[in-house]
Amino acid sequence: MSSATHNRDAPHLALEAFLPYRLSILANTVSNAIAREYQGRFGLTIPEWRVMAVLGRFGPDVATGICERTAMDKVTVSRAMNRLIDGGLVNRSADDSDRRRAIARLTRKGRSVHDKIVPVALEHERRIVSTLTTAEMAELDRLLAKLQATASANG
Amino acid sequence: MSSATHNRDAPHLALEAFLPYRLSILANTVSNAIAREYQGRFGLTIPEWRVMAVLGRFGPDVATGICERTAMDKVTVSRAMNRLIDGGLVNRSADDSDRRRAIARLTRKGRSVHDKIVPVALEHERRIVSTLTTAEMAELDRLLAKLQATASANG
DNA sequence: ATAGTTTTGTTACACATGTAACCAATTCGG
DNA sequence: CCGAATTGGTTACATGTGTAACAAAACTAT
């Protein structure tokens, strides 16, 4: 096993304290843990589940709307939607007033799957934040919002 | 444009407040912003830069060690290392006491690139956290550590 | 009306990724 | 010792991803 000491005489990045790195690890750990559940039980990928969550949360929507709400690429959304349609979880109907647009909505089956996953996802989140006090949760909320605002602006 | 109101009478997930989702967006926003800089200027991918950061931070190491420190898959590390070796940024020498192991280290060129990127990465991080007070930074640090510990345990 | 532009969504391509299978070196058990 | 299990690392395959090119529909403005 190599030493845990770091180089003192050269510039280096304290990776274990570097915010982008920590955020990335944390986000992956959390997302993957939840994803395992709905991938195993329902065969859904992360983009697929996100599309369903948006439809369940905000009602029928066009692909562009889902892009905005999920921050996912439109290609990713397009493909996720097609897989959901193949699986019978979502259907799509043309918008008569603008035939480029296709309005997606959860099917009865899709709604049923959605309603089964939501509690699982919420329970998972609850477990993860369960070590935080109410005040800490509020503070986390505030800090994440602040960071996101700055990061988006600098993007 | 569809309404911003949500479904009140069915279970739904308030995506915009859902922690895994927010973490994922934030981590991607931040990582991509920094990645653009070292991809554009040095042609490095995120895994490649992470390998270099670990070698610069902790000194020569075997692939397994890098996997542990970065939480990246061993295949990802293997490929990133090979690209770095092709580019002359890293070299590898067999460990005589265990010839399965190959110890990677930054070349002079690799060290030079590393030393150019570190300040850029730190400056980027500084910009992002610059809206936080010292107390908020400390709190963020604490909260992320707490979340990571719980998430890892539940993984 | 109609040419040019914008918007919505899909397809083609190039590339990154993880799982699983694999090879080679080492260690473990008898 | 010697075969079996383990470990370090790479390769093959299937899949996921984003950029760019594209097609179709709808605006815009003469």
Give structural attributes.
homodimer; 155 residues; mainly alpha; three-stranded antiparallel beta sheet; 6 helices; disordered N terminus; DNA-binding
Write up this protein.
2 copies of one chain form a homodimer. Chain A is mainly α and 155 residues long. Chain A is 65% helix and 11% strand. Chain A has a 3-stranded antiparallel sheet. In chain A, helix 2 packs across helix 5 (108-129) and helix 3 crosses helix 4. The longest helix of chain A is centred in the N-terminal third of the chain and has 24 residues, at 19-42. The radius of gyration of chain A is 20 Å and the shape is globular. Chains A and B meet through helix 1, helix 2, strand 1, helix 3 and helix 5 of A and helix 1, helix 2, helix 3, helix 5 and helix 6 of B. The structure holds a DNA duplex (30 and 30 nucleotides).
